């Protein structure tokens, strides 16, 4: 049974619309999805409609025990990469606020998340980190998530959001909106 789902993906809990061509999934199911960053593990939030902008991802399969073990190992490698990146930022005298580092499930891509803009000399830093970790490196800005919310149509109005009280991005957007209203 084919279907469309909102799926929470990655360290920052981004929500994407994902198409499952051959299987239906209950809420909270762990799944492997394929998107711009390769394979990642996600969690099904709810059924949805396809988006008009064509930025949807595909659910490849239900997550297996092996996928979860691999994700756990990659999470440890991500913490090591984060420590190495922090050392490099300090060595360069950059004051960027590094929040997290995350590998794709295949281990080929590594993404560093920064609060606000990534460091100014990003290209040089990316090259050095890619060589150090033998992975394609990407720098991402977390500040954009704070203004847009966790995913499609999320965070732009008080009534929007993914509907999950556990969504860190929606909680942050809500807290920011409350602070601005005061």
Overall description:
With 182 residues, the protein is of the alpha+beta class. The protein has two domains: 3-63 and 145-181, no CATH class; 67-141, GMP Synthetase, Chain A, domain 3 (2-Layer Sandwich). Helix content is 32%, strand content 31%. The chain has four helices and eight strands; from the N terminus they run βββββαββαβαα. The protein has helices at 65-91, 122-133, 143-148, 168-181; strands at residues 3-9, 14-20, 30-35, 38-47, 57-62, 97-103, 109-115, 136-141. The strands form two sheets. It has a five-stranded mixed beta barrel with strand order 1-2-5-3-4. A three-stranded mixed β-sheet has the order 6-7-8. A hairpin with a 5-residue loop joins strand 6 and strand 7. It is elongated. Mean pLDDT is 76; it is low at 155-160 and 175-182.
Summarize the structure.
The chain is α+β, with helices and mostly antiparallel strands.
Order of helices and strands: EEEEEHEEHEHH
Give unreliable regions as ranges. Answer: 155-160, 175-182
Write down the overall geometry. elongated
Radius of gyration: 17 Å
Question: How many distinct folded domains?
Answer: 2
**Structural class determined from secondary elements:** alpha+beta
Counted by DSSP, the helix tally is: 4
Lateral arrangement of strands in the main beta sheet: 1-2-5-3-4
Overall mean pLDDT stands at 76
Largest sheet: 5 strands, mixed, barrel
Helix content: 25-40%
Give the beta-strand count: 8
């Amino acid at each position: 049974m084919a279907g469309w789902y909102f799926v929470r993906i990655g360290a920052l809990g981004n929500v994407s619309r994902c198409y499952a061509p051959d299987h239906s999934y209950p809420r909270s199911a762990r799944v492997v999805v394929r998107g711009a960053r390769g394979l990642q593990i996600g969690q099904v939030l709810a059924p949805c409609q396809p988006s008009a902008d064509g930025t949807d991802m595909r659910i490849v399969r239900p997550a297996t025990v092996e996928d979860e073990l691999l994700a756990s190992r990659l999470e440890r490698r991500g913490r090591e990469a984060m420590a190495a990146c922090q050392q490099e930022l300090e060595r360069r005298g950059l004051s960027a606020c590094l929040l997290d580092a995350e590998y794709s499930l295949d281990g080929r891509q590594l993404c560093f998340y920064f609060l606000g803009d990534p460091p100014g000399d990003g290209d040089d830093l990316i090259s050095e980190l890619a060589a150090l970790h033998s992975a394609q490196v990407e720098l991402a800005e977390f500040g954009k998530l704070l203004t847009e919310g966790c995913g499609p149509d999320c965070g732009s109005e008080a009534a929007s959001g993914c509907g999950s009280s556990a969504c860190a991005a929606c909680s942050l957007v809500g807290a920011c909106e409350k602070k601005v209203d005061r």
